[in-house]
Amino acid sequence: MKDLFIEKMYEWSRKPYQKYIKRNAPWDITKEELLDFPTGSLGRGIGDFLMQNNFDIQEKLEDHDVIHVLTNTGISVQDEIAMQYYLLGNRKKSLYLFLVILSGTLFYPTEIGYFLKKYKKGQKALPFYYLDFSKMLLTPIESIQTTFKI
Predict the structure, then answer these.
(1) If you count Cβ atoms within 10 Å of the first and of the last residue's Cβ in the chain, which end, N or C, has fewer?
(2) Per the UniProt record, which residue ranges are transmembrane (predicted)?
């Protein structure tokens, strides 16, 4: 029941977040085009992630999927919350991040150990959340992970 509530909160907030808060331009690329990138590249990794999870590209929210790929984070509600903890540890700050962490901590207090582990991993990594990943699609995932200690 908690998972459903959190998922509904996300669906409710996604459209206004995309329209009014996210200022970046959509990437103008399809899932199929991402799958044409070389194996091991960021572009291919995103395409594979989208296909494996039966997702489509969400305009202006492409970076979210990149973070999943780079940090090897799953897609469960707890994993989504943990990913926000990771980003907080990586020094990202946004209203959305804080809302997810607050609600996630309240709804999943037994997962705090998992969340804090991800936070500490984010602290150890060099800040990378702000990069323009749309220009890095040919870059090998492993190279980005090594460079930024992800």
Answers:
(1) N
(2) 95-116
The tens-digit pLDDT sequence of the chain (150 residues) is: 666 766 666 666 666 666 656 677 889 999 999 999 999 999 999 999 999 999 999 888 899 999 999 999 999 999 999 999 999 999 999 888 898 999 999 999 999 999 999 999 999 999 999 999 999 999 999 999 999 999
DSSP state of 148: T
* Domain ranges, ordered by start, for the chain: 2-147
Q: What is the pTM of this model?
A: 0.87
Phi, psi of 41 (to 5 degrees): -80, 160
**CA–CA distance, 9 with 150 (Å, rounded to integer):** 29
Continuous H helices in the chain: 2-16, 31-35, 42-52, 62-71, 77-89, 95-107, 112-124, 141-147
Closest CA to 60 of 100, 96, 86: 96
